[in-house]
């Protein structure tokens, strides 16, 4: 039984002071914790406002540089990294061992597997003997080593002798929150750069339009034309005549506003001839020589797009609005006779007659100041209904097969 003096309910002055100090310490700790939690939010917001834009610009510059370097090395833009890490995987700091493992991963995979099976006693039993505990031990050791290194890096050279109140260090919070802010900014940057990369691929890596000059369409004159006419025989047009006529009807009016105002207005041109005589080549040559925008209205290109009557009206509105805004413009229709056939052949593009009514109406709105030309190509123009077909195309140009002189011209 303890002495009577120890059984008294009264506390000594030291005990009272100790209890008061503990209570004050708890209150101070609670206040400091609340202050610390508020600082986590305020410092994070401050970093986002002051450093977020700079982080975004730096990341975008680094990623754009990566775009350029990859395209210079491979000839095309790379695929953007997917997943949560995104572009962080591109600029992740790796140790020398990690780099060596990545380089030798594919080359030495089979040899490393063979050496492991032989050196460990062979088969699954050797793998059980050599692995297991050693792997777990090395993993735990590495985690402990990282924790010690982090603690040493943060606290080894930090002087806390003046921090009697044990308040938080704003710089430590900034270091941690800067990583968090950088992660959030990178998510936004990844989304923006994915869109930018898609735009670059569409603008640069897209299929290039062939650059064809009208002079590339080679062909000689028909030097026997006068002799045939004297014998009351109408000579076939030569490829040189085709080249000259296309230049006069298409290249000069589209390429020069002065010529377009002075020359008779030609709204449409039909290139008719057998396959392989260069009809599409002439269309590309007209666009190249005049710098015109090519708008493809062929049935195959419009299949499944702008369905219904409302969609067709919207298509015509967009075509002529864009054509006038970005003139000179060439409206191109391949196998245009399909539009005016009574019955479309099997195996062709679906609904080739969609533009039969709307296109002639829209062509009437082309005025003298509009440098817009409709060019159609056809291999079988006789299959179409002649009246509406010839009403749509003002000029019809026959393109014959190359003659002997054109095949051997230099």
UniProtKB/TrEMBL annotation:
Residue ranges, compositional bias (Polar residues): 1-13
InterPro entries named in the record: ATPase_AAA_core, N-DRC_Component, P-loop_NTPase
Signal sequence bounds: none
Pfam families the record matches: AAA
Segments of this protein annotated with the region Disordered: 1-33, 102-161
GO molecular function, one term: ATP binding
PANTHER family: IQ MOTIF CONTAINING WITH AAA DOMAIN 1
Protein's name according to its UniProt entry: ATPase_AAA_core domain-containing protein
Organism of provenance: Macrostomum lignano
